[in-house]
Write a structure and sequence with these properties.
The chain is about 5% helix and about 35% strand. The chain has three helices and 25 strands. Strand 15 and strand 16 form a beta hairpin.
C-alpha cells in the first residue's frame, strides 16, 4: 500500500521526530513508542533553546504558551510553536516548529510536524499530521471504532488493499499540505495523501491518494 507509506506522506526534514519515524514503513507503526521517544531525546535537547517544565515536558524558550493551556507529559513543544487559550495537551505529543494548537483543542499521542495548524476546537488523538497540514474549525480525528474492534486500514480508491494494524486506537495520518474542511470527521484508520483537500462537513475513511479533492465518499477527484 504505497499511498500509506511514510516516504510518500511526509518530508522528514520537517520534524524533530525524523530519526524515530525512519524506523517504520507505515506511520501508525510509530504510535506505540511516541512517549518513550520523547523521554529519550528530551534530556538531550539544547538547554540554550529548551527548558524543562515539569516531569517529561520540554518547551522551547521561543514558544508561546497561554497561561490557561494545560500541558501534560511526555511532551516536546518545538521552537516558535504557539499553544493558545485553553488548549489541552494530554501527553505523549510532539508539537513541531511554528505549529499552532488553538483554543479548546485536545492533543493526545500525536506527532505534529512543523507549521501545522489545529487552531479551533479540534480533537487530534493517536495521529500524525504532516508539514503545513491544517484542520479547519471543529474537525476531529475519531480514534476508536464504535464497536471497539481493531482498526484496519483500507485503500478504497486505488489498490483495494487492506492492512490490519493491531491497534484499537488509531486516528488519522495526514500527509504534508493536507487541508481538512471545518466540522469534518476523520474516522479511525484514515490516511490522507499529500496535497489533498477535504470538503467541509466530510465523513472520511480509508486511504485517500495524494493530490485529491474529497467532496464525498463517491466523489474523490484528482487535482488539475
Amino acid at each position: 500500500m504505497e499511498n500509506a507509506k511514510i516516504e510518500n506522506l511526509y518530508d522528514l526534514t520537517k520534524t524533530i521526530a525524523a530519526d524515530y519515524l525512519k524506523q517504520f514503513s507505515y506511520p501508525w507503526e510509530a504510535l506505540a513508542g511516541i512517549s518513550d521517544f520523547i523521554r529519550e531525546i528530551g534530556p538531550a535537547l539544547d538547554q540554550t533553546r529548551f527548558e524543562q517544565r515539569g516531569e517529561d515536558i520540554w518547551v522551547a524558550k521561543s514558544a508561546k504558551i497561554a497561561p490557561t493551556a494545560c500541558l501534560n507529559g511526555p511532551l516536546i513543544i518545538d521552537e516558535e510553536a504557539e499553544i493558545r487559550h485553553c488548549a489541552f495537551i494530554r501527553g505523549s505529543a510532539i508539537i513541531g516548529k511554528g505549529s499552532v494548537v488553538g483554543n479548546s483543542t485536545e492533543i493526545k499521542n500525536d506527532i505534529i510536524f512543523d507549521s501545522v495548524q489545529v487552531p479551533h476546537y479540534n480533537y487530534v488523538g493517536d495521529s500524525i499530521l504532516g508539514y503545513k497540514s491544517h484542520m479547519g474549525a471543529g474537525s476531529i480525528t475519531s480514534n476508536v471504532k464504535s464497536d471497539k474492534t481493531l482498526v484496519v486500514v483500507k485503500d478504497r480508491y486505488d489498490t483495494k488493499e487492506e492492512i490490519a494494524t493491531g491497534r484499537k486506537k488509531f486516528g488519522a495520518m495526514l500527509g504534508d499540505y493536507v487541508e481538512v474542511g471545518c466540522n469534518s470527521v476523520l474516522n479511525p484508520g484514515t490516511v490522507i495523501g499529500r496535497n489533498c483537500q477535504i470538503y467541509p462537513l466530510s465523513n472520511v475513511r480509508g486511504v485517500i491518494p495524494a493530490n485529491r479533492i474529497f467532496k464525498d465518499a463517491t466523489n474523490v477527484v484528482k487535482k488539475a
